[in-house]
């Protein structure tokens, strides 16, 4: 022990003295050619030296905090903490955690944070940092859509194909029609300047028609309804709804981005060709690329994950280049993933945990930064917002309930199914951001539709309880009459 300590001390002393000697000798070397030697003023007093040292440290800290990477870390901390706290609070209030995270994103924007503490808001979210935030949030959305694609159970859809197609398509057609009619009255005042009526009307129809399949599935899990007849029917209908609505949205985006009728037709052909390649080609080759061992193992290897990520990124890149949006490619990549050996579940657990904790809150915050509730600064604005919520609810809930009743479900179950299909959640926010990026939605209508998405999602739980209690009352009354 003593020999080791002696060796340690001698080594440090000798090498430390050597370093100091070299530094001393090096100070006398001539400066490199072309270099400007820094002139350091000699301090006149110890007090001045201490003051300048403190000032230098403070200046360095300030510069480090304003570094783009430091700013990103500050934003991550603020967003993640706010999202987790809001999620926990909403869970205690009987709402899904994702609703709280959506609300946290809006509250971190100019609607609350920017209004209450404008200086702190400008420090945390300066305009120069939003580009990085947007890119990270888009990556999070693509990973989320990849997971959504893997959660679509086509086998379950085929088992309940008749009821699922009738209910889901009715829950799209009726609200879509109402959205287009609503666009007729809102176009002049609320569309983004330069937007054609067709693009605005088609997009308003989409915004009324979307169902949040992942949020719906989590509501059913939390209420223990996943394995009930109503729960399995709702999940199947939402899956069909998602595939149909996002396919329609892809075509709407292709039309909106095209500069002419010919370009629009070519874009649609490219989309159809890409879908055919993914379904008829990549889907069949994936099991061979991954291998049976890779699909059966408990945890996917790095090689398997690299293959999957390449498929997701390549698919997202293809749809972005075609002109519809990267998230459509990510969704399709998830839908074609092999199911053998529970491979989809193993992937989704790993991807979803990362994206939902870190990246999706960034998307909520970025959406919140775009949402200016202060634009609804008059009675007419709030009346329009309430009207949009009413039209969206009547169209989605009403269309689903009537179609479900037609397929043989009783009114209570039909209304509960309608309430579940009226859940919009994150899927609606994704669609709205696409419309905003395309220059179709003005900031004012964007704020109204974001509020609509949040309100209809929050209504799901209370409406389920209300319509479920009606079923209980009806069952009790039948039991009493039978007795």
From TrEMBL:
Cation/H+ exchanger transmembrane domain boundaries: 82-465
Q: Where are the transmembrane segments?
A: 72-91, 98-117, 123-149, 161-185, 197-217, 229-255, 261-282, 303-333, 353-369, 381-404, 445-468
Task: Indicate where this protein resides in the cell.
Answer: Membrane
Q: Which keywords does UniProt give here?
A: Ion transport, Membrane, Transmembrane, Transmembrane helix, Transport
* Highest taxon of the lineage: Bacteria
Q: How does it sit in the membrane?
A: Multi-pass membrane protein
Q: Name one Pfam family in it.
A: Na_H_Exchanger
Q: What is this protein called?
A: Cation:proton antiporter
Record the organism: Prosthecobacter fluviatilis
